[in-house]
Description:
A five-stranded mixed beta sheet has the order 1-2-8-5-3. The termini are far apart. Strand 10 and strand 11 form a beta hairpin. The protein has helices at about 1-45, 60-70, 80-85, 85-95, 115-125, 130-140, 150-160, 165-175, 185-195, 205-230, 235-255, 260-275, 295-320, 330-340, 350-380, 385-400, 415-425, 455-460, 465, 500-520, and strands at about 100-105, 105-110, 130, 235, 430-435, 440, 445, 450-455, 520-525, 530-535, 535-540, 545-550. The chain is of the alpha+beta class. The chain binds protoporphyrin IX containing FE. The site of protoporphyrin IX containing FE has 23 residues, from helix 15, strand 5 and helix 20. One of its GO terms (cellular component) is membrane. It is found in: Membrane. It comes from Corchorus olitorius.
Amino acid sequence: MAALVVFLLTLFILFIALLVKLFLDTIDCYMVNPRRIRKIMAQQGVCGPKPAGVTGNMKEMCSLTSKSTAKDMDSIHHDIVGRLLPHYVTWSKSYGKRFIYWHGIEPRMCLTETELIKELMTKHHLVTGKSWLQQQGSKHFIGRGLLMANGQDWYHQRHIAAPAFMGDKLKVINNNNNMNSDMGFDFVFGVLIIFKMVGFSGIMEKQSYSGHMVECTKQMLKSLENAVESGKTEFEIGEYMARLTADIIAKTEFASSYEKGKQIFHLLTSLQHLCAEASRHLCFPGSRFLPTKYNRDIKSLKMEVDRLLLEIIQSRRDCVEIGRSSSYGNDLLGMLLNEMEKKRSDGFSINQQMVMDELKTFFFAGHETTSLLLTWTVMLLASNPTWQDKVRAEIKHVCNGGVPSVDQLPKLTLLNMVINESLRLYPPATVLPRMAFEDIKLGDLFIPKGISIWIPVLAIHHSEELWGKDANEFNPERFSRPYASSRHFMPFAAGPRNCIGQSFAIMEAKIILAMLISKFSFNISESYRHAPIVVMTIKPKYGVQVYLKPLDP
Ligand code: HEM
């Protein structure tokens, strides 16, 4: 009996201790820490709009954005910062280049000075990363894959394939797209990983991934030709690009299980759209456990995606176990399964959940971004026929009427300039977030642990101060001077945590555009409504409608 009383008393004390801790943590999270951060930043002259309770400045941001995007733009022009980042424009006018605002309880400091950005991205990548809020917003569709991993976890995931990198393979795709090199962008490192992660190095020949790209693009062109033959003239090109880039990444990740891969990615896209709404829902610790319809829908889609992924993984493992196949395959899935078997000297190992998260991450990070790059580039070329003709002439000259080979891609310099200008005007990722997990010093600034630094890439890319008076105009010529604007150009982020798929994306964009431009001429349709919006990435709200005209073979 006495033992039972002691046991119950201990349980009770533990319960009370837990409640007290929860209470103290909540006070710290919602009151003490925000006050501390506000004070430290104010002492350095960094101020911002007054936050309203637990919602911070979210309400004001939402209302500014819904007002600015309520109407379409009156013509096709590219002065889109006020439309897409109205809070940035409003607050930077009132508080200067550096200001602090609150996304719920997360303090975000806006940073536009490129020297400081360079320092942040190149020196502090291990003590900065993705915040809890960001991870919550995306964890259902990418989990803790590379994009959302932090610290040592990120480091190991990113390094997993480094030793297999072969320098000479890089030369093939290092196409002067190294605008970022003086910012210390680790271009080589990025390429290195994707080669290994995607199984490009050693196992697959360089032609095979460009082979997937060419093969899938041929199929898309065929379906466009068929539609033209049956009398169709106007096309929403965004749909075609989204399907094409999803096909390419599905082939890259799943090769033989490609059809099932496409099915998974279809569900993943629905899941992503649902999760995109999270930024409109107030997110707080524990909110995901609430039995709301929103949470239930997310859960059931996620379970279906995981079930299908597990089915593919299991069937690959079964094939090896029963001896029907001697390896897991040469695609990304096969590579990751091989990594799972390995005992690494650094003690880090991948488990099944990580394999699944990585597959989802590469799909998410790799297809929509590239599809948007292609869609915006077609829009820009369709409304700038002079550049379209110039690029077509270059492609004809370099590729001699054939499908572009990997060796020819670096010679497509005008196309490269157009792609860069498209990425400058419409960078798929409008902002780059970096949460400080430790106190850091950035130039003259002291950044306390707990602040998320927000780099408004879109605003930097459109800054007249940095790019000149024509900053909002389409002028690919500015990229003819290789290093002129490099420090302010960051569509793929910078430093060791830059985009791992940068070279893959550029290669893909060049192949697809070169093949499309050689087959069709295109003009912007009267039905096109210029209305860029941000839903995670910059999208054309109603798609991009163009008239396609087949060219003589
Ligand atoms: C035009 C196309 C693309 C653009 C503009 C783009 C842009 C970016 C940016 C800005 C980041 C940094 C995000 C951040 O840290 O907050 C990033 C990271 C990443 N990208 Fe891309 N990306 C593109 C294509 C691709 C492709 C094709 C793949 C894969 C096949 C890919 C895979 C990734 C991954 C895995 C990361 C996370 C890297 C890390 O944190 O170490 N991306 N990308």
